[in-house]
Design goal:
By secondary structure, the protein is mainly beta. It is built from seven helices and 29 strands. Strands 4-5-10-6-9-8 form a six-stranded mixed β-barrel. The protein has a six-stranded mixed sheet with strand order 14-15-18-27-19-26. Strands 17-16-22-23 form a four-stranded antiparallel sheet. GO terms for molecular function: aspartic-type endopeptidase activity.
Length: 378
């Protein structure tokens, strides 16, 4: 599969790492801004990042939301002969699903669609699937087929085939989603792809890791079965999970210039590749944005683009370690809407450490130890 490659240490072939390159494409927001449609879209499909982590859907229906800033996707294939799809590798959900030929929603019409009739290895399950969104839903059914990820062939993998999709999906570059959270989160009891990889001994270690490039469209990668030392510097900080459902950890505090500005006394955060921003409770996010000099405008927190060099770092204190995000990393610039921060309003007390955080810290997800490892990305 031309989109995948294998990295092996010189010592032994058993040290091979299975890697899937991620492309950093144009986001839905960028596309809509170019078309002059962003304001209309934003009002019609408001961003509700915490819907994805609503515990009412933790078992049964899987929750998603319309994150217009998602940029990273990788290529997988399903079926025999293989049919290729662009998917978001999402540590905040557990199901694999792609559009199907039975879907007539506008969102399906401009994406690749799986045709089970042309795959000799496809089996129908007879089970339905519904994925709840903040502004709609995806409905479909479950089937089994060979799924190839990074050159690893997972036979009889259960996956979703959409029959209808929420309108906002038509603006997203990716066709579907490959969930990498725990199986308890999976809709309809579908076994996640990585769980099957582990069970069948297809990976060298029961872990995967994610590197997201900050500037280049190329270079981002998901590594299955281990850690790639080329993508980080210094030591790895291992943080035990506080909830083995998502990749959830405890944050001790958030500071700016040494002063606690949020998460005083500790809070819970999910390390999520399927969320673009750092998201937290509105009062906390407002406080952070105030301290860095941002003002609220049409749902975003905006700053003067000429002030980025003078803006302070924001530091997350986790498990006795400091994880600092400089202004150059948390400010995003648009040719149409100026500069805005990567700190977004969420719901209750839960935080999401999304791509703004992961771009700065190489993230390792260990199922063997139920820990997240973080190291300074390079």
């Amino acid at each position: 599969m031309k989109w995948a490659f294998v990295v092996c240490a010189m010592v032994a072939l058993s040290e091979c790492l299975i890697q899937v390159p991620l492309e950093k494409g144009k986001t839905a927001r960028e596309y809509l801004e170019e078309q002059g449609l962003w304001e209309e879209y934003r009002l019609k499909y408001p961003y509700k990042p915490m819907v994805k982590f609503d515990h009412r859907f933790a078992v049964g229906d899987e929750s998603m939301t319309n994150d217009a800033d998602l940029a990273y996707y990788g290529i997988i294939s399903i079926g025999t002969p293989p049919q290729s799809f662009k998917v978001i590798f999402d540590t905040g959900s557990s199901n694999l699903w792609v559009p199907s030929i039975y879907c007539s929603s506008p969102a399906c019409n401009n994406h690749d669609k799986f045709n089970p009739g042309t795959s000799s290895t496809y089996r129908h399950s007879g089970l339905s699937l519904q994925i709840q969104y903040g502004t709609g839903s995806m409905t479909g059914f479950l089937g089994y087929d060979t799924v190839e990820v990074g050159g690893i062939s997972v036979k009889n993998q259960i996956f979703g085939l959409s029959e209808s999709e929420a309108p906002f999906m038509q603006y997203m570059r990716a066709d579907g989603i490959l969930g990498l959270a725990y199986p308890r989160l999976s809709a309809s009891g579908a076994t996640p792809v990585f769980d099957n990889m582990m069970r069948e001994g297809l990976v060298n270690q029961d872990m995967f890791s994610v590197y997201l490039s900050s500037n280049s469209e190329q270079g981002s990668v998901v590594t299955f079965g281990g850690i790639d030392p080329n993508h980080y510097t210094g030591s790895i900080s291992w943080i035990p999970l506080s909830n083995e459902l998502y990749w959830q950890i405890t944050v001790d505090s958030v500071t700016v210039n040494g002063q606690v500005v949020a998460c005083n006394g500790g809070c819970q955060a999910i390390v999520d590749t399927g969320t673009s921003l750092i998201v937290g409770p509105q009062s906390s996010i407002s406080n952070i944005n105030s301290y860095v000099g941002a003002s609220s405008q049409n749902g975003d927190y905006v700053v003067n683009c000429n002030s980025i060099g003078q803006m302070p770092d924001v530091t997350f204190h986790i498990h006795g370690q400091e994880f600092t995000i400089p202004a150059s990393a948390y400010v995003r610039q648009s040719q149409y809407y100026g500069c805005r921060t990567g700190f977004g309003n969420g719901g209750d007390s839960l935080w999401i450490l999304g791509d703004v955080f992961i771009r700065q810290y190489y993230s390792i997800f260990s199922r063997a130890q139920n820990m997240v490892g973080l190291a300074k990305a390079v």
